[in-house]
Specification:
By secondary structure, the chain is an alpha+beta fold. Helices cover 19% and strands 21% of the residues. It is built from six helices and twelve strands. The strands form three sheets. It has an eight-stranded antiparallel sheet with strand order 7-8-10-9-11-4-3-12. A two-stranded antiparallel ribbon has the order 1-2. The protein has a two-stranded antiparallel sheet with strand order 5-6. Strand 7 and strand 8 form a beta hairpin. The two termini are 24 Å apart. About 11% of the residues have low confidence.
């Protein structure tokens, strides 16, 4: 277990927030476009000093960046892990702070402004996780690019887990509930790897297939599914409070992320973990309990106001 280092953080909160209602798509400034004129606000009374909140928390490494995710239900402070997922952390911070270009899925225009501001947690499953970061508020939304996973399967122990135990029962990590699942998740990828395309070929090589099944590890099974692993990093399990990249399969990361409400061992090896909540688990849990529809979308939007790095 990593040793946590105590930290002190003083947050500044403005008591007065100005907002302007704009038509959809007009709250962003496209690259190479003329800047929108600024909004001038005059106060008749002196501005009061900004209130502060003193927060004590621990983190693993003083060099790790710390971010605040401000939402309409409160704030969470997270420690990010650039040594474990450098490209993922760089991408997350670049989108959050507006230094990485992204493409609006509706207009096709490229933008260079904070990406997450104003987005929602579009998928919330109590006892599982909360998911956000979709530019269109749906699970298929992307920022116009994708990048690879940063996962070390060996450090997660996937190379020591057998796909089948001595009784022929699949490892619980695989989430196999029936023969159809086993066919789709294990057998078909193995047949593809071996170049087996017909029943006659399968019958001729059935002993080889059975031997491979008996010796196959979870790591090897996931590699057959297309996942690629690197031993340049040390990965950690997706436990309660971690933030990880949401994706649609191997190497399909973009902007969407999820934060675990509980340990999710079955996601190990499939999602890049790149940080952990250090303050605000009660906010995380509160978001996890909001009423949702039959698509797990909150009935009332939980908005990400901003995600910003905090200098400590």
């Amino acid at each position: 277990m990593s040793r946590l280092i105590p930290c002190l953080l003083i947050l500044l909160y403005s008591p007065l927030v100005f907002s302007q209602s704009l038509p959809a798509g007009e709250f962003l400034t496209p690259l190479a476009a003329e800047a929108t004129p600024g909004i001038s606000v005059t106060l008749d009374t002196p501005v009061q000093p900004m209130p502060t909140a003193t927060v004590f928390f621990s983190r693993e490494d003083f060099n790790n960046p710390v971010v605040e995710i401000r939402t309409t239900m409160g704030s969470m402070i997270l420690e990010l892990f650039p040594k474990e997922a450098p490209l993922t952390v760089e991408n997350f911070l670049g989108l959050a702070e507006g230094t990485r270009p992204w493409i609006d899925p509706d207009t096709g225009l490229e933008f260079l402004v904070p990406f997450y501001d104003g987005l929602v947690f579009h998928r919330v499953i109590d006892g599982f996780m909360i998911q956000g970061g979709s530019p269109n508020g749906r699970s298929e939304g992307t920022p116009g690019f994708s990048f690879g996973d940063e996962i070390n399967a060996r450090s997660l122990g996937l190379d020591k887990m057998q796909v089948l135990d001595d009784a022929g029962i699949p490892h619980p990590l695989l989430g196999i509930g029936n023969q159809q699942d086993f066919q789709k998740k294990v057998l078909m990828p193995l047949y593809e790897k071996l170049g087996i395309t017909s029943q006659a070929q399968l019958e001729a090589r059935i002993d080889e297939v059975n031997r491979m099944l008996r010796s196959m590890t979870v790591k090897e099974n996931y590699e057959n599914l297309g996942y690629q692993y690197s031993e340049r990093f040390i990965s950690r399990m997706p436990v309660r409070g971690v933030i990880a990249m949401a994706n649609s399969g191997p190497n399909s990361n973009g902007s969407q992320f999820f934060i675990n409400l509980a340990d999710t061992d079955w996601l190990a090896g499939k999602h890049t973990v790149f940080g952990k909540v250090r303050v605000g688990l009660e906010v995380l849990d509160a978001i996890g309990r909001v009423p949702v529809d039959n698509q797990n979308r909150p009935l009332q939007d939980v908005v990400i106001l901003s995600i910003r790095r905090i200098q400590i």
